[in-house]
């Protein structure tokens, strides 16, 4: 792990990688050893899940899942993309905010993303009973912070092969997530969780008095 990363970002990277390694070692995809307790399950009554070998588990929402889901990932590419974004944006933003504010910001975005996901499922997909995992909601919050603090810095939005200002990047990306979520495009991705993390982060920055291009 690079030693030049500030402490909170470095520790978040380490924690995510260790949890993913534990998921792999416990064969979590098949056993649900961690998923049954720490992934974000829809709010409501528990369900009975046959884990095989006569083992039946009661699975459902628990309050700690609002945080723990953000340290679990659904596959190798999932964690690689999220950790790359955390590495790219986290250290810079932590240096600007300071460790305390960065920690508050990161976990506010993470929890807000979870609440947004739970609300959408409860209101519109009440028959759905599968979990949400990943740090993407917090990562979208970091992306929003980058755009707010460095609006003119260039980022590349795939598949557009040119750099565009960070503020425009976030608007386009956020709009795409909204369209995908409303239309059901790219099923299996928590689009509204991404939006929840992004919006919560921007609102928190605004409450802290941060304006586009203005240092904290």
TrEMBL record:
The chain crosses the membrane at residues 71-92, 104-124, 130-150, 157-176, 188-208. Its main location: membrane. InterPro entries: Peptidase_S54_rhomboid_dom, Rhomboid-like_sf, Rhomboid_protease_S54. Keywords: Hydrolase, Membrane, Protease, Transmembrane, Transmembrane helix. It comes from the Bacteria. It is a multi-pass membrane protein. The keyword Membrane applies. GO terms for biological process: proteolysis. It is found in: Membrane. Residues 62-207 form the Peptidase S54 rhomboid domain. GO terms for molecular function: peptidase activity. It holds the Pfam family Rhomboid. SUPFAM superfamilies: Rhomboid-like (SSF144091). Belongs to the peptidase S54 family. PANTHER family: PRESENILIN-ASSOCIATED RHOMBOID-LIKE PROTEIN, MITOCHONDRIAL, RHOMBOID PROTEASE. This is Rhomboid family intramembrane serine protease. The lineage of its organism: Bacteria, Pseudomonadati, Pseudomonadota, Gammaproteobacteria, Lysobacterales.
């Amino acid at each position: 792990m690079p030693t030049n990363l500030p402490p909170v970002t470095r520790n978040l990277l380490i924690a995510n990688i260790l949890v993913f390694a534990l998921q792999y070692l416990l064969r979590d995809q098949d056993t649900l050893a961690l998923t049954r307790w720490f992934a974000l399950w829809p709010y409501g009554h528990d369900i009975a899940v046959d884990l095989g070998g006569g083992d039946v588990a009661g699975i459902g929402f628990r309050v700690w899942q609002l945080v723990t889901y953000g340290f679990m990932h659904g596959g190798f590419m999932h964690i690689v993309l999220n950790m790359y974004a955390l590495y790219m944006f986290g250290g810079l933003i932590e240096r600007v905010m300071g460790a305390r504010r960065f920690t508050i910001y990161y976990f506010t975005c993470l929890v807000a993303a979870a609440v947004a996901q739970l609300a959408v499922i409860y209101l519109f997909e009440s028959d759905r009973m599968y979990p949400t995992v990943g740090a993407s909601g917090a990562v979208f919050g970091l992306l929003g912070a980058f755009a707010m603090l460095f609006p003119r810095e260039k980022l590349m939005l795939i598949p557009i092969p040119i750099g565009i200002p960070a503020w425009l990047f976030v608007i386009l990306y956020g709009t795409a997530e909204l369209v995908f979520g409303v239309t059901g495009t790219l099923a299996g991705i928590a689009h509204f969780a991404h939006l929840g993390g992004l919006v919560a982060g921007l609102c928190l920055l605004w409450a802290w008095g941060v304006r586009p291009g203005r240092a904290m």
